[in-house]
Amino acid sequence: MNFLLSDDQLALLTSIEDLLRDRCDSLRVHKIFDVEGEAQYDSELWAALADMGLPAIFVPEEQGGLGLGMVDLAIVAELLGAYAAPVPWLGHALAIVAIALGGSDAQKAKWLPRLAAGEILATVAFGEGKGAWLPGEWQLSAAGGLIGTKLLVPNAAEADLIVVGVAEGLALVEKGAAYSTQRIDSGDRTRPVDTVVFDGAEIELLTDGLAVRDRLIDAAAVLIAADAFGGAERCVTMSVDYARVREQYGQPVAGFQGLRYQLVEMALATEPARGLYWYAAHAWDALPEKAAHAAAQAKAHLTDTYLQVTRDTVEAHGGIGFTWEHDTHIYMKRAMLDWAWLGSPGRHRLRAADLAGW
To answer: What is the CA radius of gyration of the chain?
Structure first.
């Protein structure tokens, strides 16, 4: 049994990280994050990632993709989280998963090659009012045209295609249909979200959408957990590096026992949790009977951990950690959206308990 990434996966990570290191440094992220008004995304970075094949990871080879799995998607999500990359990857990747799993041959042939090439942008719409994120809670119906509201939809304003969770399964809604979007100030400007109001929008149901919608939610939980791990790990590194160079009373602040213990606690909370999302991704690929429980556990624990680590990171940086110019608040706001999107950690712990038969 091999618990390590393969050579191909390590090569994938290396090539993506090289690109992010060159084109997604702190100044580049701030250029997107600091713009007042409606948040957008870094279109040049997204195009570069698309040229590298990022959107093609999960697309089957017969539709022009790489034919890889959830583990590969998840390790990419970790990297994008570590760099707080302002790109519309999450919704796009999940829309591809939905179509690849639930689409007919004609639907796959129509959409997947263009999505794999990055020619068009897609996203997913899950959330409804009163914390309804999960398939059994969806009230919107595809009958007679789509009417109703979806909340916190990633990059809906820019998307050419939205995969919408409905009572009948999963529906495709193309840009130009009868719906409107309103950008929400979620705080996390690296991943803008919209409220989408459907007003009789024409839809096309995914052929097997009803059968795969729970699996799609599990995929979303895994990718959010991976993003949270990547961000938390980057915050630990950032805090340790700062503590080594920031001096008070003539010595690095890392030498003070109180801060040293805090940094150790942050590292101990983060690093062992990598296995949670790795296992959840592996279970999604290979252990379907355990996938939902593992995904819920990973989403709950890692988003809680990420939020606490970002709070500790702000404290570790002292006064500068509270300023707009520093990266600390970018990661904290990203952690807040990870915590809330798809439901709170408490919601997913209840789901895990239900799945375990408690």
So the answer is: 20
List, for residues 17-48, the tens digit of each pLDDT value: 999 999 999 999 998 888 877 668 999 999 99
Name 332's Cβ contacts closer than 8 Å, sequence gap at least 6.
Answer: 307, 310, 311, 313, 314
Q: How far is CA 221 from the centre of its chain?
A: 8
Exposed/middle/buried for residue 44 (C-beta within 10 Å: 0-12, 13-18, 19+): exposed
Rounded Cα–Cα distance for residues 310 and 214 (Å):
30
Angle between the 70-82 and 209-245 helix axes, to the nearest 10 degrees?
40
Q: Check if the beta carbon of residue 206 is closer than 8 Å to that of residue 320.
A: no
Backbone angles phi, psi at 211, to 5 degrees: -75, -25
CA 237 to CA 225: how far, in whole Å? Answer: 19
In order of 46, 143, 321, the CA distances from 303 in angstroms are 25, 36, 21
Pair 106, 147: CB distance under 8 Å:
no
Question: Given the DSSP bridges, would you call strands 122-125 and 161-166 parallel, antiparallel or unpaired?
Answer: parallel
CB 282 within 8 A of CB 288: no
Alpha helix (H) residue ranges in the chain? 7-23, 26-33, 43-52, 70-82, 89-102, 105-117, 209-245, 257-270, 274-286, 288-316, 328-340, 345-355
CA dihedral 26, 28, 77, 151 (to 10 degrees): 110
Specify the length of the chain in residues.
358
What digits encode the pLDDT tens for the residues 320-355?
A: 888 888 999 999 999 999 999 999 999 999 999 999
SS3 100: helix
The answer to whether 64 and 116 have CB atoms below 8 angstroms apart is yes
Residue by residue, what is the 3-state secondary structure of 260-284?
HHHHHHHHHHHHHHHHHHHHHHHHH
Q: Measured at the alpha carbon of residue 20, what is the angle toward residues 92 and 36, in degrees to the nearest 5?
A: 70
Read off the amino acid at residue 16.
I
